[in-house]
Amino acid sequence: MEIVWQTPANPPEAHDYIFRNGKRYVRPYYFEFISHVKNRWAGKTIVDLFSEEFKGRPYQYYVSAVKCGRLRVDGEMVHANYVLQRSQKISHFLHRHEPPVLEDTVEILQDENDVLTVCKPASVPVHPCGQYRKNTVVGILQAEHGHAPLFPVHRLDRLVSGLLIFAKNAEKAENFRQQIEAGLIKKEYIARIVGTFPEGEQIVDANVNYNAREGRSTVEVCDGTGKSVEGKKACTKFERIATDGKHSIVLCKPVTGRTHQIRVHLQFMGYPIANDALYLTKDVAPRSGKRKAKEMDASSLDESLPSDLLKNGDDEVRTAEEFEFAIDSMCTNCPNLAPKGYDEDEEGLWLHCICYTGPDWSYKCPYPSWAILI
């Protein structure tokens, strides 16, 4: 079989997806990852670089990838001890397995000449990032509805659901950007939190410091010692909508837009989002530690055994041919549909964007089922 290598220029298509057990999977596909040698990478051998920076695959995989030409420098085959130089182009040709997302549809709420408004399901990234390319809101809208290009007006965290607005052209996107910078656009969320949230408007005005390596934010406040407070200024207004004594539904109005701002401000108040594993307690294992644990576990798996994802209800192993994707002899994820180490029990966050308003317009999104307290 002749391998056809996809690049970011290849659009997602409807037949790329597989729906199984409440999840949306992407058929594994051949893809060319392109990167350029950063200053801190220069001087390292190509195998050492990849084994240190991309630990999801074992060292021997990268040795084999160089030998067979799946790792190339400036389009040319090199040897395993090749020393990289700054700005060189590295191509990594691999069999790409994207993590699954919840199978909920991306509901189109309003389709205008230059604006598309949708309800984003939880667990789906807005645009291509990291391991996700086709399993994104942008990818799904292009594959299933033919909408392209799309320019996200704002972003929602992958685990957050709710209102998402896209401009259909660069001019409209710039118009939205100017309104956001001028403070003319407001956004509201609802969250389901632990405990009985106090009545009346509650305001948290505390800096948020995001640690990209750990993938989480912390609240930074003055400790009275005169030490400067780290992080960026952040302010969120909260108001209780309902409570049953165990949980509360809270309206959240972010005045600023910092990473994980609502989530970490609610934790700071002592009312974390009820299913937020990252901020439910203050003592959460950092993401880097979790990732290393997953990688160690993944590397110890017997790669000759098919995943449970390829079994039907009678525990009969389903072949890759039934799913219409080829097993790649070099792939460290085959015959799984999902990449090894993926946390398949991950669910959507109980945080939902319900409203986005500008000077002359307003878009609203329906409440999710978890927002109803009995």
Over the alpha carbons, how many angstroms does the gyration radius reach?
Answer: 23 Å
- Give the count of helical stretches: 6
Summarize the main sheet. Answer: 10 strands, mixed
- The secondary structure category is alpha+beta
Q: Can you give the helix content as a percent range?
A: 10-25%
Query: Globular, elongated, flat, extended or rod-shaped: what is the shape?
Result: globular
Q: Give the mean pLDDT.
A: 87
Proportion of beta-strand residues? 25-35%
Distance between the termini: 57 Å
Order of helices and strands: EEEHHEEEEEEHEEHEEEEEEHHEE
- How many strand elements? 19
State the low-pLDDT regions, or none.
284-319
Which descriptors apply to this entry?
374 residues; alpha+beta; 10-stranded mixed beta sheet; 4-stranded antiparallel beta sheet; 16% helix; globular; pseudouridine synthase activity; RluA_PseudoU_synthase; RNA binding
Characterization of the model:
- With 374 residues, the chain is an alpha+beta fold.
- The chain contains 6 helices and 19 strands.
- The strands form 4 sheets. Strands 8, 9, 10, 11, 12, 13, 16, 17, 18 and 19 form a 10-stranded mixed β-sheet that branches.
- A hairpin with a 2-residue loop joins β4 and β5.
- α1 (46-53) packs antiparallel against α2.
- The relative contact order is 0.15.
